[in-house]
Amino acid sequence: SGLEDGVTRSHGEGAGEAVVERGPGAAYHMFVVMEDLVEKLKLLRYEEGLLRKSNLKPPSRHYFALPTNPGEQFYMFCTLAAWLINKAGRPFEQPQEYDDPNATISNILSELRSFGRTADFPPSKLKSGYGEHVCYVLDCLAEEALKCIGFTWKRPSYPVEEVEEEIVPEDDAELTLNKVDEEFMEEETDNEENFIDLNILKAQTYRLDMNESAKQEDILESTTDAAEWSLEVERVLPQLKVTIRTDNKDWRIHVDQMHQHKSGIESALEETKGFLDKLHNEISRTLEKIGSREKYINNQLEHLVQEHRAAQAQLSEARERYQQGSGGVTERTRLLAEVTEELEKIKQEMEEKGSSMTDGAPLVKIKQSLTKLKQETIQMDIRIGVVEHTLLQSKLKEKSNMTRDMHATIIPESTIGSY
User: Where are the coiled-coil regions (predicted)?
Assistant: First the structure.
């Protein structure tokens, strides 16, 4: 199968003309390709290998030939294509729902071209998920998968039917007109004694009619037995076959007609040949005039053609300079973006520092701390004074005790010396 044998289902203007050019039956070729595709998928056992694993419903025989649900059909197309590519021996990741459809289609077409298949149609034809191009791509991939597994198509073997030919005697099967007349005459001569006189039969019939005219008319019912009737038909049927001999003069009539048509064609050819010769001469003269006029125009426009070529060369140089300049602009734009980003960071840091400097909360905290320190200093001074006073009292008390002790020791010694 090939895309050239398929149908171009054109959407928009010119669709009818494309189908007419390719024949009236081309519009239904995609249905044939789709049915072949389903059979090939069954040969590849896609029910066990794909449908059950992916929990998908089996497609109908015309699933990709008619539009039903574009999103579902496109997902089914991508899934089948990926599975067939893997079956054909090429590694291909199973597409997901969030993947880019353009990238998926491009990968499928590149794999199709790697198999040596042609894909001379825009990738947008596969986005709809149905149509001749979808059927073509899947059919090609199915054929490649069958080649990979070593499947070969065999010639069909037709069963031989033994037909028993019924041998019928020629005299009973087919009779000529002359033989029918002869047999009819023989039967008349042999069976004259069995015939009834018509006058006697007429008189009897008249009497019966007169007798029954007075009777009440009853409903007419057939008394013929159907089995006997069919047996009689089978017995008489071979004798009713008549063959008419062909007339040997028929072919002569056809030959005369052929000669008449030939003479008519020759006479018409003589008349039309003159007109065709005149038309040929006029066309030749017109072509010569066109050629000479073309040469004259080329000579007249030679300098303009040269100027156009020079302008084309200047345009190509300007394009090269523009590409070089655009490359430098791109680099400088990148540097500008980096500098701008650094500047934004510095501005943000300056704003944070400025906001922290203008905030009065730290000063209030410092003042509160100083006040608290002053209070604690006063309390410490008071405690130090109390401790110094206590220490002074203890020293004075010790001094007085020492003085008293000294006086107590001196008095007894003086009394001892007096004695």
Answer: 298-356
